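Dear colleague,

As promised, here are the two records you asked about, laid out in our usual form so they can be pasted straight into your sheet.

NAME FIELD: protein one
SEQUENCE, THEN STRUCTURE:
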Amino acid sequence: MFTRLRTLLFKELRQHGVVLGLVVLCMPLIWLLLVLLIFAAPVTVSYMEVHTTFMRITVIPFAFALGNRLIVSELYGRTQLFLEALPMHRAEPFVIKWFVGFFLLAAIAMSSLAAALLIAAMREPIDLPFLLSLTSRTLVFGTVLWAFLFMMGLLGKMRIPIYVLLTLAVILLAETTELEVSRFGPFALIGSELALSRAGIPWGDVGVSLALALGFTVVSAILLTLSEGSVQEVLSKPMSSRELAMMGISVMFVLSVWAGLQP
């Protein structure tokens, strides 16, 4: 088994290593640009803000691109059909993909955190509770983000409608209720308090985020094993005209509900 997993790991590195390596090389340039913007700002509360901004505008888009590269492109490219013909469990290639994506995402996020800490330590105190808060927020957010995108990648053609409906649902909640989505679970982990909170690990947000990550992982495992992959095979096909029409109807329904709830 370990030999197969090692072979699959080398296969992922050969297939995606060059592209992912080039993308990763761009990360320090983006980070340095953010540092310059922080230094040029007239008022800076904490130099850890560079890490907060990097997580929002760089790590999240990179995670989407990573999920598309590792999962979606392989499903639509039908590469998994060749892998399923090999003497291995059909979930093994995706287990390797999960860990490759997670460790790459975590490495980028933690590198940003380490570099930001080096700069901030010269200008502000970095105590243990603050360090634990920063580390836990960064790692847990990376975990729940990758678990969610991995699950969405396995949903194939259904991921775009779900993205649209989730976006509309979040906007609807924010506009029509007093619920502050930015203070909930994963969103709170990379909020403004990421660079400011010195109260230690935010256990409530961490617990909610880890529970979500576990749920996303369970759904992914079900998708990989359900009916020996027949469901995943259907999801990897392009959307039909009927499915596109249903997507449009669903979006119009949500927009109609939104308009009806407006004062």
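NAME FIELD: protein two
SEQUENCE, THEN STRUCTURE:
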Amino acid sequence: NTHNFSKRQLEELFNSFESDEGKFPEKLAITMKNYDSIFSAWDGEDLVGVVCVMDDGLINAYVHYLLVKPEYRLKGIGKQLAERVKNHYKDYLHIVIIANDSELRFYEYCGFEKLQNSTPMHVINR
């Protein structure tokens, strides 16, 4: 459970997904220090996966990122990161993640369930 990553490590991880966040490694480095819990996966000095969680201290935990570099997928890393979150927050009532439709099967495999009659929403400021 570390909050210390170099800008380069974060930039490489986020850019492996062509995400907007990868364009702002300085902001990512600061952001990572603000999460309540971060679990990471490494190959030597190479950051290959990360899961970041915010929580309210007792009832709700919100998974914001669960990322594994594409070349490290299908090796159980994402599942292990999800299990670490579920174990760490086992006494909370809710562990919530907003999943892209293409990722639903993975999160169901990890034990998450799609809520009926719910639609995730957000505002993107650019």
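A couple of things worth noting about protein two: The first helix runs from residue 7 to 15. The mean pLDDT is 90.

Best,
R.
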